[in-house]
Amino acid sequence: MSKSCGEALMHLLEAYAVTTVFGIPGEHTLELYRGIEKSNVRAVTPRNEQGASFMADGYARVSGKPGVCTIITGPGVTNAATGIGQAYADSLPMLVLSSANDSPSLGKGWGRLHETSDLCAITRPITAFSEMVHDPAEVPGLIARAFSVFGSQRPRPVHIAIPIDVMEMPVTENWKPSRIAALPVPGADAISEAAALLCSSSLTVMMVGGGAQHASEVVTNLAERLNVAVIASNAGKGIVPDSNPLSLGGGVISPAVQAYLAQAEVVLAIGTELGEADSFIYDLPVNGNVIRVDIDADRFSDAFPATIAIHGDALSACEQLVEALADGAIKTACESRIEELDRVREQQSADYTDVERQHITLLKALREELTEDAVIMGDITQLVYTGTAAMKTELPRTWFYPAGFGTLGCALPGAIGAKLAAPEKSVVALVGDGGFMFTVNELATAVEEALSIPIILWHNHSYAMIRDGMVKRGIPQIGVNPRAPDFIKLAEAFGCPGVKVNSELTFRQALKQALDYAGPTIIVVMEDDGWLVKNHG
Ligand SMILES: Cc1ncc(C[n+]2csc(CCOP(=O)(O)OP(=O)(O)O)c2C)c(N)n1
Q: How many angstroms is it from 421 CA to the middle of ligand 1?
């Protein structure tokens, strides 16, 4: 029996273990929804396609599996572009399936509904590939190519656009998934060269990023074997648990940690771009030789050229390095290294500003209330910048701050995607009063899906980060103090609880209640509240 192409595609995705898609249906995607109805795939409806791509992003961050968007051509794609760009910047697997106008009209400017002159050109710069389907027979190959990007290369979003006439065409075949190639294994020569350099180095520092999230145990072994400090990017937080005294956490944002890094004779960078977004500076002080482990060969000649390039999967590279170092002249655990790193940590703490200390009061209480595997989805807000360094993290894929694209409004929809990917885990969103307003509409989705998500809203009546930049440069405060709504009434209007807390006790109580509640809860924390400063006098 034949199915429409749209329906056959949903069955194929099911065979690739896709369980959830995010999208707002339109006239042009109806056949996809026929497929959704006839498969076990769950459709989640955001309130704007930007929410769809942020949800798919959050889903991918937590699960490591591709987040899938089903959206209409034209405005559906342009709305989703922001979240697609964020997933591109942070190397996340995301499958964007959109409709397109009918094949004969493509690129002709006939005034079709939702028409653009070149749909794929919109997403090409923010995807691994963006392709227009001409015939249903191309679909299984394109989906296989997408899953190959997700599973055996640097993961990035993929956009596949299906014209409405192609979407409706009959498919008689039973489409099957293809086997995906494994991640590339690094060559032995680079490993032995790197091992030799590491053995001769008087001070090595390891930097770890999102590319090593699946290699937590072996990265930790390697650090212990070398007895060196590990600094994480945001995407690398928790790969080496912060309870390990060699971990300097996500401290690359701190001048004290940057000063320590500057002394390194060898920097071993594993699955990280060493990007500006993690340190807030262009010129990260990397002065020594750089050993780079990366799946993306373009990284070896970027702003931090590799002295030794190890091309391939981080897990395999670290396993091979541990083995190669087994007989090397590496010092075993040494008290003085820990003392050295304790001094860096002390300096880091001493450097915190007053407002950062307020953030830390909240973050400490939050950490104590959450289990280690709880997921924290951060927005672009000062509370979260402080958290990149100060929030203790024990497991990878639990702290998320989309540093790369720096997109305001990502946290709530990201948390929705995360909670759908891992319903058994606590998921918390950290937002500012400014950023929250970008995607506040997604409260409706969280209420509808009954997703327990405490939303901790740091309220300073301002786009404080930008306001502070204006003040520092002597620019009058223009456009940086937008009027915020009454967030408690807003919560009520969406049908969820909202509470303003005024002490550590009320914060902890509100958080506990929110974690037990089957829906989102807005917890408003006022920056000027006395309790936030009390611990730091
Ligand atoms: C989409 C987008 N637009 C603009 C910015 C620039 N920007 C960065 S931080 C910020 C202020 C955010 O305000 P809020 O969420 O209240 O956090 P706060 O800085 O006050 O902690 C702005 C406007 C951005 N990062 N993303």
A: 27
